[in-house]
Amino acid sequence: MERLAYAFLGLYIPLAIGIVYRKFSKNCYSTSRDLSRLVLYFFLPLLLFDSISRKRFEALVEDFFYMVSAATVIALISIIAALVVFRGEREMVLPSTYLNALYLPIPIAYTLWGPESLYLAGFYALVNTCLGNISAPLLLVRGGIKRGIKRLFRFPPFYAVLLGMLVSASKIQLPRALGGLIADLGRLAPYLALIVLGLQASDFRNIVDRDTRRIVIIRFVISPLSAFMLFPLWIPVYSLAFKVALIESFMPPAVSNVILANELMEKPERIANVVFKATLLSTLIIPLLIVVVGSI
Fold first, then answer.
1. Cα(39)–Cα(43) distance, rounded to whole angstroms?
2. Cα dihedral sign for 110, 115, 117, 119?
3. Tens digit of each residue's pLDDT (9 = 90 or more) over 147-206
4. Which domains, from first to last, does the chain contain?
């Protein structure tokens, strides 16, 4: 019970800080953008590197298979569901499939199970980011697959995961002072990410429009139900890998969908609208998710 209470407080206090700051700040967009970049380019890579480099490589390989296969299965199910629900509208397949695999899952996993669980979210996000950035140019019409691959190689967490696995495989021991500093700085990432999400909350009116309802059905109903039924076929039910993969299956569309839409579409407003509203709705669903997964 105490762990669940800590998870709720760890989620909603930083979120509330962002919302309150937005209400009284005149330059909230700039603050949100700068904080996002700090998290993405600095604190989050440190967090992932620390989480992965401390694990035995043999354990990483098994968990890597679990998370890669889980992410691939959920992506395929989400693609099929989006094509059916949106009746073949390709542009809406991307936000249905490319989900928030780091900013929201990491704070939840961190508060429930500590830093030992974070590398699993990193593995899941690695697959999800690859699929999102490579498929975006194909789904959003303008541009080509090369642009998606270039975006992937400009994604700092990608290198943090690879470098962490290299350090683990080679059994390199970092100096204690350096390792401690990396861990301390990385722990800021989950809370800063939630503050950024709070800063992005703007209009709560008409939150459940037609597109948002469809995305909600895919992301919060079809995806988690599929995960709950299929993942136990190859992932041990009481393992951290199963719990983190289950959390990932509940996640809303990634904010990166908006960035990709701005680059590849003439009218990205539709995707931006659905990403924002689905993310807000997810903050209402997450408490139930924490209770369910925290009790496993």
1. 5
2. positive
3. 656 766 777 877 888 888 888 888 888 888 888 899 889 888 878 877 877 776 655 566
4. 2-294 (1.20.1530)
